[in-house]
Amino acid sequence: MTPGRPMAEVPDTDSFPEIRASARSCTGCGLYRDATQTVFGAGPVPARMMMVGEQPGDQEDRAGEPFVGPAGRLLDKALVDAGIDRAEVYVTNAVKHFKFRRDERGGRRIHQKPSRTEVVACHPWLAAETRLVRPELLVLLGATAAQAVLGSSFRLTRHRGEVLSADDTPCLATNHPSAVLRAPDRDAAYQGLVDDLRVAAEAVG
Ligand code: SF4
Description:
By secondary structure, this protein is α/β, with parallel strands linked by helices.
């Protein structure tokens, strides 16, 4: 670790509950200050498939659970359409705290993309989850998650839907469900997500 650089400190243990509990008090970067709570991953450990998003949204921040807001509901539907049982998937985010700004009136919280420094600071939690979940396939939802795992030069537009490898773990990058919600042609974007998830389902047999 570079001295002075923000970084999460993960306890040296193979206990998933211990690691998850420790993440609740993480101050590895500045995002813990304004968010409600750490939103750690959820699902079976180990799991054959692990999905990684960008960061918790407004509803996830309040609930303390990943993918429970509008993007999570779209993901649930896409998983059903791709023949994947969400109960068998471990879901998490590259960054565990919600980054936002207030709208002009100081009320609504508006999502802000985490910086590269924040993604790197939070990476030890993601690495610990991957080590303990031992997925046969990592599904990376959106460019932030894909670059967190595959490096900042990775281009989602070029390699979307391909089965690649990161540190010997097969992975596949696709669009984040929130990008599908914002897409001008939402039906086509949704179908693209489902098609990629079908490739993911085939990759884990
Ligand atoms: S975003 Fe990650 S590194 Fe930053 S405080 Fe939250 S858990 Fe720690």
